[in-house]
Write a structure and sequence with these properties.
With 180 residues, the protein is α+β, with helices and mostly antiparallel strands. The protein has four helices and seven strands, in the order H-E-E-E-E-E-E-E-H-H-H. Strands 1-2-3-6-7 form a five-stranded antiparallel beta sheet, with helices on both faces. Strands 4-5 form a two-stranded antiparallel sheet.
Length: 180
Amino acid sequence: MAILPVSVYGDKILREKTKDITNIDGPTILLIQNMFETMRNADGVGLAANQVGRDKSIFVIDVSPVEGFEKYKPMVFINPQIILKSEETIKMEEGCLSLPYLRATVERPQQITIRYMDTDEKIQELEADGYLARVIQHEFDHLIGKVIADRVDPFIKKRIKDELLKIKRRQIDVDYPITD
């Protein structure tokens, strides 16, 4: 397994829609393992494949380090689709490994249902709410070329403009590898 460099704001791949996976092969399993290792090394709870430079429709999450979520097992979502979103929304502060040190309040649906393929190539559905739903939606956004800066109101986006520019110029100091 390997720790992969994380793509950061300004990297073109973060703005592109990822491609569906047609079969789960050895390289795909290795990518998933490397994504978990990379995410944990950076103290993240989720990571999408395009955040490590791969244009594949996969994300991984592990919320078990978060208080109250210790019983949750790590999860892999392949070719995910959010098929239901609640009308009820909630605002929470979010961070992102691709936007180091930037935190912003994002409004998202409180509950979702997501359909995805697991590593055994079986179609699964999961209903999630609260924090778990937020993490899933955040990672799903990456697969469609969106980051949290796209989900904040224009006033906040203007306020974080300088921070985004610093990230884009690599004028940041992080304790995990990022792209050049």
